[in-house]
Amino acid sequence: MLDLKWVNELCMKLRLNKKYRHNKTGEIYYATDPIQQEIINCTNDNEGETMVIYTRGTQTNPGVFVREINEFNEKFTEVIDD
C-alpha cells in the first residue's frame, strides 16, 4: 500500500486544499485555492500574474509546480468529492 503521508504533509504546509484532475492524463493533483490564497508572479516579464501552486496526488515523483491561473484552469478540472 502506498504511504501518502509525505504528500498529505506537503499539501498541508502549502495549503494545497483543492483537488483537480488533469484533463489530458486523468491524473489527480492538489492545488492552492486562488480565492483563499493569492499567489503572485514577481518575475520581470510576468509581474502581477495570479498563479496556482500544485502537486501530483501520489508519493512517486510528486513534484511541486506553478502555473498561471488561466492556463491551469484550461488544463485541470476541479474534483468535487461527495
Kindly describe this structure.
The chain is an alpha+beta fold and 82 residues long. It has one domain (5-78). Helix content is 21%, strand content 32%. It is built from two helices and six strands, in the order αβββββαβ. Strand 1 and strand 2 (28-31) form a beta hairpin. The longest helix has 10 residues, at 5-14. The protein is globular and about 35 Å long. The model has no long low-confidence stretch (mean pLDDT 80).
Topology:
Blueprint: H1 5-14, E1 18-22, E2 28-31, E3 39-40, E4 50-56, E5 64-68, H2 69-75, E6 76-78
Antiparallel strand pairs: 1-2, 1-6, 2-4, 3-4, 4-5
Keywords, separated by commas or semicolons:
2 helices; globular; 6 strands; 82 residues; six-stranded antiparallel beta sheet
**Overall outline:** globular
Q: Spans of 5+ residues with little confidence (pLDDT < 50)?
A: none
State mean pLDDT (0 to 100 scale): 80
Which sheet architecture does the biggest sheet show? 6 strands, antiparallel
SSE pattern: HEEEEEHE
Work out the strand percent: 25-35%
Terminus-to-terminus distance: 24 Å
Tell me the count of domains.
1
What is the count of β-strands? 6
Q: What is the SS-derived class?
A: alpha+beta
Number of helices: 2
Structure in a nutshell:
With 82 residues, the protein is of the alpha+beta class. The protein is built from 2 helices and 6 strands, in the order αβββββαβ.
